[in-house]
Amino acid sequence: MPPVALHAGIIGAGMGGLAAAIALRRGGVKVTILEAATELGEIGAGIQIFSNISKYLIRWDVDEIIGENLVQVDEVRTWGVKDEVVTRVDPKRVHKMTGFPHLIARRDHLHAGLTESARRHGVEIIVGARVQELKYAEKSATVTTTKGISYTFDLVVGCDGIKSTIRQHLFPEVKPRAPSKVAAYRGVLTYDEIKAKAPEAASILTNTMDMWTGPNGYIMTYPLSGGKELNVVTSFCKDYYVEKMEEVDIDEFRGYYKDYSPAIQSIIKLVNYTQRWPLLVMPPMDRWSNEARTVVLLGDAAHCMQNHMGQGAATAIEDGVFLGRVLSEVVRGTLTVPEAVSIYEQKRIPRAWTKQQVSLVSGELNMCSDPKDLLKRNASSLPEVQGLENGEAKSQFPPLPPEYRSWQMFDSPDSVPGIFYYDAEGDADNAVCEFLQARDRKAGRVDELTMVSEALRKKWWAVVDFNGVG
């Protein structure tokens, strides 16, 4: 049986769009990316790549492309307002538990790695192609750019971010909103500057990821660019809902953290932030596609979330991997495009909404303002730090009891195994099998003796004909 020809158009060459493009190509789909910008690139500072995503960077050789600019830290720590360590994680243990490493990169380095991998996989990337019009039929969809050029695809995937043009065409009434008064501030310093101007911080900020938590805010730092730079991202609760990017007075910003550790304040005095970023969340949606399922959303276009779990881009990459796997079954003749898109929606919509909720709760825990709750929170994580004395390690990382769960969820596979152990490819393949099995049972196409679904038998036996063997 020859493969089914399938051409997908991906709108947007961000992290999710590039990941989807790679995954779709690996599934046998022809892929064209239409990117509005005239040059490929990514804004922002650092990005964390946990085990649910690092596995794909390794499978796709993106880790080798990025090379020495990737970082793996020796320890992840959370500090309280009295300069005490309140949570402590060993990344080597997390790697052993999950099977894949916790990596860190600059966003532009990761984006460049994904772009190069996409090109190596045979993805066509067209820049300067801003989509302004979308039309769709029963078995295709057509987009037209501001230059008046039209492209028709079997499936259009809207990966065009929080201000998605594709979403506005499909669901004009759906808009992201600020569910809390938290805003973010981001920037990068060099370690040379830190050593020269903030030696008290340099002695602490070695090859570690650190978070200083306090009432109504926190500061996170971690190394970038092979240890040459330090990413500094902070959050703070304003007295109003921040709905758009704003200019910020630097003295006001620094005043948010005036009661924090002198060491981290020395870092805050070096940053020169001028912008306050909103942390918007997309409300849960019943579907991400049109009726014919020839257009579908992915990533921030469908489920932007707050950053307190470091899972925004990761969830978009998961979307792309999952979609690539189910569409590979269209190429093999097992599913139709509408069936594949339906499976994608049924599995990815609830997962994205769960991660949005986890991110919100993680932020609440880190910005805890009630003194009683703060004491209770910090006391609950003593098993992680019992090997520390006066802030210095007196033993190896202490063993954790099997029932232990950390409140610091962003780096804890014990607390959120559904994130850290997740495999989007395996989940997608299992979802396809469940779909075929249910469809056959409903139609009475199950062998009475073996109880094997006709479609599942065909799915696995078809490998022989599909590969041209025999």
UniProtKB/TrEMBL annotation:
GO MF annotations in UniProt: FAD binding; monooxygenase activity
Gene3D superfamilies: FAD/NAD(P)-binding domain (3.50.50.60)
UniProt keyword list: FAD, Flavoprotein, Membrane, Monooxygenase, Oxidoreductase, Transmembrane, Transmembrane helix
InterPro entries, A to Z: FAD-bd (IPR002938), FAD-dep_Monooxygenase_BioMet (IPR050493), FAD/NAD-bd_sf (IPR036188)
Domain (FAD-binding): residue spans on this chain: 9-354
Residues that span the membrane, as ranges: 6-24
Similarity annotation: Belongs to the paxM FAD-dependent monooxygenase family.
Name assigned to this protein: FAD-binding domain-containing protein
